[in-house]
Amino acid sequence: RAAELDAQAVILEALRARDDGFLPLHDKSSPADIADHFDLSKRVFKAAIGGLFKRELIVLRRDGILLRTSD
Q1: Cβ atoms 12, 53 nearer than 8 A
Q2: 71 falls in which pLDDT band (50, 70, 90)?
Q3: 10 Å Cβ neighbour count for 40?
């Protein structure tokens, strides 16, 4: 659980660092792509984005994940 929360923080930080708040990674991305970008296993990455989605912090798109903006 701690690894998942740490992974959520890493993913949120990466999304916030991008002007468009978008990363072209998703649950169908290859384990190698996920490891190259975040140094996370695919299992931890999927659990983390699932948690972020449940917390309504990200939008899941077919081509990646998008930071949900507060409007």
Answers
A1: no
A2: low
A3: 20
Angle at which helix 2-17 crosses helix 42-54, to 10 degrees, equals 70
Residue 14: both structure tokens together: 């990466």
pTM assigned to the model: 0.90
- Got the DSSP string for 15-62? HHHSTT-EES--TTS-HHHHHHHHS--HHHHHHHHHHHHHTT-EEEET
User: Which long-range contacts (C-beta less than 8 Å, at least 24 apart) are formed by 66-70?
Assistant: 66/15, 66/21, 66/22, 67/12, 67/15, 67/16, 67/21, 67/22, 69/21
| Token digits of residue 10 | 């890493």
| Under 8 Å between Cβ of 29 and 41 | no
Q: Rounded to an integer, what distance in angstroms lies between the CA atom of residue 52 and that of residue 46?
A: 10
